[in-house]
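Here is one record:
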Amino acid sequence: MENKIRYKLHKVKKQWVTIAVTSMALVGVGVGVACSTHEVSADETNVVAVTRGSDVPASSSSQTQTSTATEQSQETTTEASSTEETVVAEDSQKTTDATSAKADDKTTETSATEASEETKASSEETTKPSEATSTETSETSETNPSEESNKATDEEVRDDKTNKAADSDAEKAAVDQLSLDNIKKIDGKYYYIQEDGTVKKNFAITVNGQLLYFDAETGALSSTSTYSFTEGLTDLVDNFSKNNQAYDSTEKSFELVDGYLTANSWYRPTKVLDNDGEKWIDSTEETFRPLVMAWWPDVDTQVNYLNHMSKYFGLDKTYSATDKQSTLNVAAEAIQIKIEQEIKRRGDVAWLRDIIASFVSTQDKWNMNSEDRDTDHLQGGALLYVNSDLTEWANSDYRLLNRAPTYQNGQTNYHKADRTGGYDFLLANDVDNSNPVVQAEQLNQLYYLMNWGKVVFGDADANFDGVRVDAVDNVDADLLQLYTDLFEAAYGVNKTEAQALAHISILEDWSFNDPDYNHDTNGAALAIDNGLRMAFLDVLTRPEGSRSNLESLIHNDLGMTDRTVDSAYGDTMPSYAFVRAHDSEVQGIIASIIAGQINPKTDGFTFTLDELKQAFEIYNADMNSVHKQYTHFNIPAAYALLLTNMESVPRVYYGDLFTDNGQYMVVKSPYYDQIVALLKSRIKYAAGGQAMNVQYPDGANGGVLTSVRFGKGIMTADQKVTDDSVTTSGIVTIISNNPNLKLNSSDVIAVQVGIAHAGQYYRPLLSPTENGLQAYLNDSDTDITKLVDENGFIYFTGDEIKGFQTVDMNGFLTVWVPVGASADQDIRVKASTEAKEAGKLTYETSAALDSQIIFEGFSNFQDFVKDPSQYTNKVIAENADLFASCGVTLFELAPQYVSSTDGTFLDSIIQNGYAFSDRYDLAMSKNNKYGSAEDLRNAIKALHSKGIQVIADWVPDQIYALPGEEIVTATRVNDYGEEREGAQIKNKPYAANTKSSGKDYQAQYGGEFLEYLQEKYPSIFERVMISNGKKIDPSTKIKVWKAEYFNGTNILGKGSDYVLNDQATGTYFTVNENGAFLPKQMTSDSAQTGFYYDGKGMTYYSTSGYQAKSSFVLYNGNHYYFDEDGHMVTGMREIDGQTYYFLPNGIEIRDAIYEDAEGNQYYFGKTGSRYEGGHYYVFNTTETVDGVAKTVTNWRYFGKDGIMARGLVKIGEDYQYYDENGNQVKGQLVKDKDGNTRYFKGDSGAMVASEFALINGGWYYFNEDGVAVKGAQTINGQQLYFDENGVQAKGIFVINEDGTRSYYDAKSGEKFVGDFFTTGDNHWYYADENGNLATGSQVIRGQKLYFAEDGLQAKGIFVIDAEGNRHFYDPDSGDLATNKFIGDGDNWYYFDENGQVVTGDQEINGQELHFDENGLQTKGGFATDAEGNKHYYDAKTGDLEDVALVEA
């Protein structure tokens, strides 16, 4: 039968849309969802609350569908009959016949008879609701069949393309009626153009009652009433697909993780195709197939699967979500046949597992694209495990976050750093160190680590002596209590200094709060003097122009010790200091080189080994250059102070002696000789009190720092020699950080080495030359000496101290020592064995502690060995003598754990030992980067043989890449565990790698020493921990790591929906002992999918066959929401306490701006929820500058009602400004439409009011309204002036409104009033009592003066006044010249008592003189008198001669 297509106008709120009706079926329902009386149109801003309903899946029969379709038809007829208004916008609905599954529409790829039968069956089943609808529609359409037939005549063959064109025309017509300046027509399309000329995208705005939407991709105006889906239901089960049903609903028939199905799950189907895919046979227990071969969570995923597999099999087919569902289903069956044929050909399914895993990894919902990868975590993001009934096994009573020393009890206890002093989520699986069971395991592992030699080899000489506690600011500070308790109990470090110094431990504690905490808790370790470390870096190693003052090396607010005069031990906290470290000042530079010069797409912390090699070629070349771009300047100068400072233990970094890359100890750095000279000389000379100061000679262009150690037994400069004094010890260091330093030759730098050294000679240890520093280890190496005078001084002249620019010096450095020390002089002090008094600290500064040197004996970037002889630990053992000769007393080994190789962060790429899966595996399962377990044992023993302690790296914070998965409930968070706004992972099941194997060394040693420790040291187990208020819990031995022991993990690339659920109900697919919830088509012969209008609204049945109720649905890239009745919603909606916005066609806007009729704008985030609540939110964008991608951070503010701040707004007590996109303006001037200029602070963004501000080199003043003042102003009693831009006049002249001129002081900006002033170059002015510059002749303070039109005082010049009289003004005072001669070169004038130049014959001072009509004195010439007589005037004196010539 021929289809007769009719069109009716259907009113939806204020809009009209077209509905096409055929005599056979209702082809489309327009925006029928909006017909429902309860719907909210998109141009309304009121919020309708919706609460999620039950997760129990709902279904409907064909009978129910038929009934609701009838209601729809009746409603359609009623509405259509009342159409009388003019069409405003024609939103013709793209529709498809509900019988879209006809057999002639199917693909022909499959040869299976079943596929053909399925298509037919599908077609028949899906027509049932449509047939009922068409019957009703035919009846209701017969009101005026003749009229309807005529209407439809010209549009019978209207196709989808025509529909879209009509929609577009209607939109344009609507826009043409709008008066909105921002909307521009470009190339036939409409765009919203912002003030800066850019196109605003993903933007919805209500104008004159019309909702306009500009799409996210191009910004072009798009229809908001055309559905992006085809209506109609399709059967999910047919003669083909029913064979894909699950064999049963037991766990053994599925690959599960904790009972959950995941995207990589396989299952046992009922039947499989054998041979060439022509016959179904029963499956066996071994017959498993990928779930995504037969089921997909949504149409988008099904389409992606089809395209992925079609490409794999070389099929020339591409699919999209606009294809009919039946077409997609038939294509999937064809792919399945191909799969079975390939399985037959290959004889296994390993290839299929690979290709399916590959497909899964390409889907956003199953990869990192849905995990909000960003820079808020070192590995792109963190996930916090939260308690949930869905994953009870992963729940925890603890997970107390950020309990670092600053915040151990949940409150901020120290205030030199930020609120928490650190953050919890550093890397990988973040261990929950607030859990008492975990704390007991940490004690267990620490004991094992310290006793590793004895436990593994039965050799106590291979035990470690101390630990470096890694990442102190990222672990629960209870662990610091724990290791202190163990070291006190096991080693008695709190008993005597000797015991303490025999087991020195150190903290990696970056927070400035940590030393105070360590002191207050009597920690059994040394904290970093981070203030001193930063001074080394900022004063000496930074590029010229970025360096701090030299005084910071003596004392700074963040450092621990003031070394101006340090004459006694015990008056400061003990600490250790360093310049660089394996992960400080190295990897950041390498990251910048990689990101800047090699691969701009990386953050520099994830890279290939080839990229790393390229980076080090640049790095090492830079290090060996004079003019460095990346690496550090003045490393020897920093070490000169580090190794000679009092009351600080120095730590020397391997990478300052050798190159960071390359084989271990093979290539020396350009600083090797200088640092080794300092190390060896420290043994002989660095002792006694210390004095430091900075001198600024009068003729110098910079300061010169001097540091003096007076020598062993000599604590002050004025101390005389005693029996304890060693006058051949002591050391002088002189430094400048100015490469252009220049002193006058007469300048002298006097250095007081102490009167104890009077009459001694000092010689250079390090001396600067034009080619770099020269080292003189021995007295015999140089003849250069200086004699100490009777007052204890040696002197350096201006010619000796100057700036240098060499590879090792960018400024000045020299080090001097006394002459006469024996070759084996050793001034180091042994530790006291005297028992400490009760209450004494474990570590106190002393000469014995000062005698220690720590060597950080590794770099992150050592090359992988090419030969076993190159292993680090082998080389260490071979060089134990060298380390001892350099004074090393403590050797800090690299972490010896076998490394993970997951490549998610630098540590696991370079395998430095910080990324591990088994904390007990110290090169035991296989060699690590540094060698074998035997190599490690031998290195420890070799160092012990030379009296060198060995420090192990204790890493209690993280565990990488565990092999076993668990389902946890997770929320995307930042470093601090704070929920990330708009993240897609929020309280969602997630498959995390949290389980260890149970067959590793963790299984062997985990918890094994707790009983012994409890018996041996019971006090440790009685300690109540600060963070959790509990004692450690030894009752559980952690043999297998599990999620309950972790705070969370880094994002793993599993995606937000890797754990599968039915999107219609939000219920997760599970199979467990309590039953199963599976896609309907897996267990039932009746299941449908698609969109269907039930007479009240649009409904949706998922690809799992369940009706969507109280749930979001993804279809064709768009998100929809179906309420508790299963109807698609539009407009503003409140769902589960959050607000969303849906266009009239049901599409949810995401990462989009909506502007209502009042001009208020709202932002709906990446998950669609509205930002609100009176909070600031950060928005990062990426900008590419010179090929380098940089992250730009903007802040937006959203009020409690969600309105986005724009323009000038008051938030709290401050006014702030937000641009048209809602981005907060900080550190910028803003001019409003009225021409008012305001400024907003760079830190807070608060508007500056009633104060001055220095901006871009100019000063402004902003009044109480925050407006920059202009013109003349009186502020705080000062008369000031601001130009038309608001910039204060300073050191410039201003023309006043009355034409007068005023001048404003160059420093204060104050107008000069009633006084003289100069602008330099002897230019003087006078400002009267009103501040106006004097002009013309003036009598001021009795002086007769003259000022030019611009106010410049006449000095030393001739002036012709208004009457034409000539005057002259004194060049010094400016006084009018009176009764005096004034010479102008060879010309002379005389000015009378009135200051006027005389003319004619004059008798002056007894001389008869003559001046011509211009006042020029006659000299050496004739002049005619009044009687006509000519007279001659002397050429020198000008006197009249006696002879007069009378004219004949």
